[in-house]
């Protein structure tokens, strides 16, 4: 039986269920499995945000909102970005979305015509490629591994020169990055901006992890080229609201009006009750992410130290909650084989680097969005696997 039905949208032939989800589900049946697989904060939603949602239920705030979201949440989201990152948005610059994932889909659906080129620094989170394909765009991946996962102007220039037949329309940025945790300094962004302007590229900047930045101040690319930036953010990571699915798109008013056309036919509007909770999170909970970030920093330092000592090569992450480590040289197998063997023998599930593209092959991603007790147990299991000679594949 064919794995693909020919009577459906042909673009689906280029799309698969995320390897992240596939591997997470495949390992769930292993007894005593300890999973550090998903980007799922282990914190609970702050109580005052929960109370705001309960109040919205009590107030019967259960009807459709405007497509872009209630004015209060859009203004609160704008104020958050303005205060935190020196931007200049108001409610008219904002669409409230069903998570950052829908924001990405709506933005790409607005920007792309068939055949338009999109530059994608890799390795990168797996959501972008399928959507570019679905919208008939042409993805051009740029391998950032040689520069510790940091994109440079020269890399972009080279990618464009290597594909003279492609009309490049956009570039995707995600920083702090999933899967590497690497982020960009202000001076690095300033250098990139010169190329973005030169080629008039739309910048789809996914900054969902902006509040989880360590040792440096997050700089939004929207502060440099707001007229070319579609900024994507949300509350899943900063306020642990993953299941509540609340995200935001920020852009110039004219662009917002165009994206709204795509957004409204995808979802109509974000959930009314969650919008009320988001107002509370963005105002009275404007700094809720800081406490989480302090704890993540402790976890990062611990896991980074332990895995480095085991022989993993790691670009030190400055944000998010991931370690992206190169599998030690003696283990001469691909990332999927390594992770399957680790899960089966030592009951520890990490994500194979290949889930983030060919550029991630040979690496594993660990999510340290778990408490220290679990992380300490995970490091014991990983070390036991690494230090067992029989596990080495020659």
From TrEMBL:
GO MF term set: pyridoxal phosphate binding; transaminase activity
InterPro entries: Aminotransferase_I/II_large, AspAT/PAT-like, NHTrfase_class1_PyrdxlP-BS, PyrdxlP-dep_Trfase, PyrdxlP-dep_Trfase_major, PyrdxlP-dep_Trfase_small
Keyword annotations: Aminotransferase, Pyridoxal phosphate, Transferase
GO terms under biological process: amino acid metabolic process
SUPFAM superfamilies for this protein: PLP-dependent transferases (SSF53383)
Alphabetical list of Pfam families matching this protein: Aminotran_1_2
Methyltransferase found in the keyword field: no
EC number: 2.6.1.-
Top-level EC class: transferase
Ranges where the Aminotransferase class I/classII large domain occurs: 32-382
Transferase as UniProt keyword: yes
Cofactor entry: pyridoxal 5'-phosphate
Superkingdom of origin: Bacteria
Family classification: Belongs to the class-I pyridoxal-phosphate-dependent aminotransferase family.
Protein name: Aminotransferase
Native species: Paucilactobacillus vaccinostercus DSM 20634
